[in-house]
C-alpha cells in the first residue's frame, strides 16, 4: 500500500494511493481517504479523490529524524572519510522536513549545499530495544529522502546541527510504500535532469536491521519517526534555480526546487 499525507480544501488527511500513472505526473492516480491514522488499525473510507486535485505533504511529521552518516563506503571515500566501525548517527530536527514540491531554501550561512539521496524508514509504533527478529514489526514502510547538507559548514563545524538541520534540509515523500523489500533497491538523484547519484541499498554497510537494533538500544522511537539510512556516492552541489529529484525503486520520485532565501 502507498500511504500519502495530503491537504484538500484546507483539511489534512492520510490516504491510500491507488492506480498506475502513465507518465511522470499524477495522472491516473487516486487517493482513498483513510479513516484515522496509519499508525494503528484503520479503514479506507471509499471516498476517492484524483491525486492531482490534492496537495501532497511530507508523508509524516516525525518527532525526530535519526540519520546515519557514511553508511556507503564509496560515499565515505569520495569525501575523504574512513568508514565508521559502528553506525554513526546524528539528528535532523522536525523543522527540517518539507514535502514533495516544496522548496529547499538555500541557507544564508553556506556557499556549498549538496544533495544526498536516501532511503527513509518510517516507524510504525513506539519501540525500544528491538530484537533483530522483530525489526519488521516496528516498520510502517519506506519513502524517499534528501539529506540536504551545507557541506562547507559540515567541514568547519564539529557538530553537524546547522549543516544538516537547517529549515527545509529534509525533503520526504512522495508517499510511504508499506509492501517493499528494501534490501536491494536502486537509489538515484538527478539535478535538472542530469544523473548525479546511482547506487543500490545492497551497498549499505549497516543494514536496516543493524541500524534499528543499534538506535533502539539507546532511545525510544515513536510512531512516525524517520530513519535516514545513508547516501550512495555521487553527492554534489545544488544552486538556487535547480530542481533535484530523488527516485527509489518501488517507491517513486521526490522532487524539489532550490530557491534563495528572501
UniProtKB/TrEMBL annotation:
Keyword rRNA processing annotated: no
UniProt domain Rv2993c-like N-terminal: residue ranges: 1-59
InterPro entries linked to this entry: Fumarylacetoacetase-like_C, Fumarylacetoacetase_C_sf, Rv2993c-like_N
Record keyword Ion transport present: no
Enzyme class per UniProt: hydrolase
Domain of life, per lineage: Bacteria
Keywords: Hydrolase, Metal-binding
EC number: 3.7.-.-
Single GO MF annotation: hydrolase activity
Protein name per the record: Fumarylacetoacetate hydrolase family protein
Record organism: Streptomyces polygonati
Lineage summary: Bacteria, Bacillati, Actinomycetota, Actinomycetes, Kitasatosporales
Amino acid at each position: 500500500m502507498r500511504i500519502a499525507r495530503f491537504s484538500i480544501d484546507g483539511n489534512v488527511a492520510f490516504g491510500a494511493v491507488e492506480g498506475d500513472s502513465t507518465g511522470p505526473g499524477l495522472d491516473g492516480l487516486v487517493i482513498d481517504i483513510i479513516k484515522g491514522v496509519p499508525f494503528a488499525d484503520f479503514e479506507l473510507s471509499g471516498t476517492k479523490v484524483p491525486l492531482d486535485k490534492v496537495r501532497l505533504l511530507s508523508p509524516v511529521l516525525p518527532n525526530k529524524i535519526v540519520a546515519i552518516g557514511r553508511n556507503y563506503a564509496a560515499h565515505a571515500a569520495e569525501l575523504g572519510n574512513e568508514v565508521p566501525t559502528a553506525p554513526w548517527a546524528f539528528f535532523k530536527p522536525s523543522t527540517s522536513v518539507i514535502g514533495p514540491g516544496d522548496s529547499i531554501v538555500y541557507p544564508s550561512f553556506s556557499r556549498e549545499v549538496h544533495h544526498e539521496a536516501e532511503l527513509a524508514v518510517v516507524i510504525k509504533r513506539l519501540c525500544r530495544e528491538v530484537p533483530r527478529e522483530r525489526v519488521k514489526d516496528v516498520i510502517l514502510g519506506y519513502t524517499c529522502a534528501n539529506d540536504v547538507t551545507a557541506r562547507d559548514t559540515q567541514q568547519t563545524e564539529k557538530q553537524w546541527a546547522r549543516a544538516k538541520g537547517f529549515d527545509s534540509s529534509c525533503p520526504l515523500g512522495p508517499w510511504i510504500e508499506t509492501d517493499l523489500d528494501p534490501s536491494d533497491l536502486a537509489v538515484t538523484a538527478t539535478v535538472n535532469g542530469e544523473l548525479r547519484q546511482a547506487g543500490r541499498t545492497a551497498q549499505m554497510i549497516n543494514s536496516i536491521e543493524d541500524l534499528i537494533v543499534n538506535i533502539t538500544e539507546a532511545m525510544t522511537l515513536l510512531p512516525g519517526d524517520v530513519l535516514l539510512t545513508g547516501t550512495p556516492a555521487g553527492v554534489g552541489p545544488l544552486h538556487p534555480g535547480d530542481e533535484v529529484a530523488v527516485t527509489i525503486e518501488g517507491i517513486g520520485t521526490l522532487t524539489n526546487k532550490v530557491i534563495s532565501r528572501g
